């Protein structure tokens, strides 16, 4: 356990020394900015949008953070194989399990960083461009604008982490960033459609499907309870999926022969 | 630089993938401080063996010890002692040479900034080390490959076909460098190749592998050339007379062929001259290692 921090530093170096990463971060600033300006211009005058409402609207752009994070996770193991650098990475005095852990953590740090940038940018835009007035009736009962947005973002973050860990598993499984990114983004967008198609109140088994349990924010307005599903139930199901994804990643990565 | 105990002990190692046996009960001991060659035709199993040594491939049977550490049981302990390039030295192209070295330096205990600079100087990359690797030529990447492999002063340096793609000048530099490393610093170098001519020039000992099996181990260079009996051809004016005079030897065209050691050759020459025979030339007729290699590996047949 000499110095695990150094492994993390390496993974970070490999993320932040790439131009791609800075383009992603730039887009997470620029796209919300454009949308916010458009929103401010188009609603100038009669229909006033409050700062918190603007913030809530802007957070629907969170899918940007999800896609970019998924790309990093999909690439972080696979790229070492495509570059051939895996052969130099795994012949160091570090067990493969720790190398993989450093990659997972570096990915999580990136996703957290991108989320923070996203939140700060959106918050700044909302309060710079829009008046801090309260518009009643927008938020469900029992929520303040702040607590509503915070909880919403937390659920979005959870969804994102699940997609990312799925991408991470595909990355170790197929050693191909392309497949991993493709499937992860498919999951991201198809998830909502599948969620609408799978009716847990009709077919009980669909309660245990990954998509049915994602998008936890629906419990904020009481959706899903029809089939007897609760927030706790979904969290438990999602946890099992995450554990399985991680277990598969670790087992495959630790056992696999590294041949050309 | 006394070789106390072998740096590497490969003990009954086999590698099976599916029904194929790529390596079949391989036993090999690599003494310390040598440049040790691993010779075999393409597909013989050199890369597979090296991959098992450095833990890139699992070992189906047997075990490999680096010093006292088993690759299977104490992977971290074993890897601390090894530096390697397996096939091509693939680097992070979007990083500079320096950042690449920093990356690997962080993964081994005790590699200081001074050590990194020292290694950069040694492999002659000082002027370009802060440029991105994507601008490097193959020769420069090879040097960077060697640099990452020796950063942590490994006891054992493993190189898989390091001369592939190098020009003659590059091969010469690498060869001199490896010999220096082994003979002045006591680093053991294990180097594979399918080219015998290269092995002859750089190795002290060569192990020959064919179709996953060890065929032979040949000592090429010993401390002071020990003298061996060798077939020697004496080119003379009257071969039959010469053979009669010596009471031994076979006539082959204008030569008499006699098996003798160094001293014997001098003696025979003196007797011939004293006996009034004109000696035009003396040449050793050892079967070249090339012939022996082809014989052992049976030519043709890709394993
Ligand atoms: N991952 C693999 N799966 C199946 N066979 C393999 C694999 N890697 C190598 N081989 C086979 O094993 C044999 C030895 O290969 P290798 O060790 O690369 O030989 P060398 O390095 O001596 O040229 C070859 O016949 C090759 O086709
Ligand atoms: Mg090979």
Structural summary, described in words:
The complex is a heterodimer of chains A (260) and B (303). With 260 residues, chain A is an all-alpha fold. Chain A has one domain (2-255). Chain A contains ten helices and no strands. Chain A is globular and about 60 Å long. Chain B is of the alpha/beta class and 303 residues long. Chain B folds into two domains: 8-219, 3-Layer(aba) Sandwich (Rossmann fold), CATH 3.40.50; 226-284, Alpha-Beta Plaits, CATH 3.30.70. Chain B is 34% helix and 28% strand. Chain B has ten helices and 14 strands. Chain B has helices spanning 46-53, 75-79, 97-107, 113-122, 138-150, 168-185, 196-202, 239-246, 262-274, 289-297; strands spanning 8-17, 20-30, 35-39, 61-66, 69-70, 82-85, 156-160, 188-193, 205-210, 213-219, 230-236, 250-252, 255-260, 279-284. In chain B, the strands form three sheets. A six-stranded mixed β-sheet of chain B has the order 6-7-8-3-9-10, with helices on both faces. Chain B has a four-stranded antiparallel β-sheet with strand order 2-1-4-5. In chain B, a hairpin with a 2-residue loop joins strand 9 (205-210) and strand 10 (213-219). The A-B interface holds A 2-3, 6-7, 9-10, 13-14, 17-19, 83-85, 87-88, 90-95, 255, 257-260 and B 17, 51, 54-58, 75-77, 79-80, 82, 84-95, 99, 102-104, 106-109, 148. The complex binds adenosine-5'-diphosphate and magnesium ion. The site of adenosine-5'-diphosphate has 12 residues of chain B, from strand 2 and helix 1. Adenosine-5'-diphosphate (ADP) binds at residues 17, 20, 22, 40, 42-48, 303 of chain B.
